[in-house]
Write a structure and sequence with these properties.
Strand content: 15-25%
Radius of gyration: 15 Å
Number of domains: 1
Structural class: alpha+beta
Mean pLDDT: 90
Low-confidence stretches: none
Length: 93
């Protein structure tokens, strides 16, 4: 969220969680559900999105595609997750 890793802003509405594919897992950490069902940020590391696919490349692409469906003001994310796994050659012995 905005301000992370220093003093993260809280209270921003999180949208798009229902738009994530069924094959994608969303782990919530810095979130809070309001009585009316509205999800809000409540910490610095808000969500972790994990995609399951047939290859590391497909999983990475799916995770970022689904990440694009989720939004909250001040949202920030790493763009290097999976890069070293995808770039590493496979060795068979």
């Amino acid at each position: 969220s905005a301000g992370y890793p220093g003093t993260p802003r809280t209270g921003d509405v999180i949208s798009g969680l229902d738009d994530v594919d069924d094959s994608t897992l969303v782990f919530q950490a810095g979130t809070q559900r309001e009585p009316d069902g509205t999800m809000r940020t409540s910490g610095g590391r808000v969500l972790c999105i994990v995609a399951i696919a047939g290859s590391p490349q497909a999983a990475t692409a799916s995770a970022y595609e689904n990440l694009g469906r989720v939004h909250f003001d001040g949202m920030q994310y790493r763009s290097d997750i999976g890069v070293t796994t995808i770039a590493a050659p496979r060795v068979t012995v």
